[in-house]
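Table S2 (text version). Query chain:
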Amino acid sequence: MAPASMRVSGGPTSDVVPPATDPTMSTPTPPPAIQLTAIDASPILPVDPALAPALRPATVLVHEWTDYWAACPGATALTINGRPAPPLPGGAFRVRFENRLGRAVLQAHADTGPVGPPLHVEVISRKFATAADYVSFTDTLLSDLFERSLRLPFDLGAPTARTVTEARQPPTPLFVMHFLSACGTPLEAALRMILRAPHHDVERQDTWLDAARVFEADADTLLDIATAPHRWERAPRPDLPVARRLGGHVPRDIRQPVTEVTHDTPENRFTRAFLETLVRAADVLPGCPWWPRVPEQRQRAIAGVGRACRRALAHPVLAGAGRLARFPAASRVLTRREGYRELHDLWRRFHTARRPVFAALAEAIDLRDSALLYEVWAFYALAEAVGEALGEAPVLTARITDAHGLACRAQARFGPHGTLTYNQTTPTYSTPLRPDFLWEGAGGARVAFDAKFRLGNFGAITTTPPAGAPASRARDAAVDPAADPWPDHAATIPDAAGDAPDAWLDRVVDDDGQRYPAIGGMHHYRDAMGLAAALAVYPGRRDAFYAHGTGRRDVRTLADILEGRFQGVGALGMTPRPAAPAARHAPADAAAASGPAAR
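Corresponding structure-token output:
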């Protein structure tokens, strides 16, 4: 077993032999390192070299719900992901992670600034038998999330108001991926219309031409000649009509108005600036750590949009346009002319819908925050499950709700049936509540769903439900239990009457073998918000519904719950599953035709 205490540092390591040094010179003092110690016998494990690429830059593994203390010479404070850690006597600091899996950064501080390099740790759950199981679960969760987002892309709509305030935050790579996926086709169509009939201006300016090149003359031209004798010269032939009038002289050059067609207009400058922004944003995507998990079909589509933008920028119309100094807000071309109108609408979407679900999701992927990743995955999975139950394909939208583009309402709309909203705050008679997902049916039924990332012990689990357990839904029964990489918790068998506690569900829903903390929270939502039902969504394959007034298990379908035919609380099992190798990169239309994946 690894020791419970180890001196670990976040600095890079190297196998390179240092060059020989002068013994008369003093050896530089290495920077102080953070020493992390477990208070109990919990091991602090170094990252396995085989898992290092997946867990980089973490160097050690720690467990959640475990107390550690950290010390660093000369440190007066310690931050964990930027937040201060509580101090302990003797100059140490308490480190504890609760309901938080993934990467964490510990940094020691003194009055003069940071002390030594940061320490990157990976927080894992004891319910994973090995760290490899944890990495496998996270990879599958991300892969399934990207697959579902490909089937259900966000409709990144923009406000109808003309005035737009640009969000101050830069677009996250995840938002860029969704934007180019959802808006690539209309973007390419707009560019084709613009380059086929580009907007241009006609410039009129005066220039001085040799008399032999003059092509028109009017009264102003004659007046210029007569009043500028300094521009005359001796005529080569005195019999010329002009020479006879000017005493043997002719004008050396004559001012002529010249008209030129130019494409260097504010509208074309705007087009060029927007395309350059998209190209720069798209170039960042291949370097993101989650990019290899994006389906190849989506990668190719995004690459195609990037090539279309580069071709348009190389076209003489846009290549000759100057730099945009000021947005042409008063231009009617951007709001009325074909191509420019569509591009302007896409620009508004890009600059006002930058941060729907994607900013928090990007941080969750970077930190491998399994709880938040599961929450976002559950939104997609629940949207597909609701669409299957109601026979209505969902349309995902993200709408801005404030003037600065910092908040949004992510929704899945199901035609005339209702709407599923992500993180909507609802007022109550005391304090506002915000379940993860709120269903509002057209018939008035309101149901709360709350994602609970709780797992059974991966080292002692079975896949067979106990005798007398309620039947799973048809789509769960169609899944081969032997192929399930993360089966549910081991079960206790209820008696013949079926009145025994559902321990096989309880231990999945809650760490302590009781359902009250998780399902009890559903009572809180249902009673305070006046809902028909409230359900916990957890990583499992079995459901449990407890009818109001009876307290007994009830067998219900998701359609019953959504349409208000069930009153009560319960739990809904939803587990990410790896895509089949042959179907992982299937075309989008084939994936849509096959329906949602089995939960």
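Notes on Table S2: Residues 15 and 49 are 14 Å apart (CA to CA). The domain at 5-10+30-124 is CATH 2.60.40 (Immunoglobulin-like).
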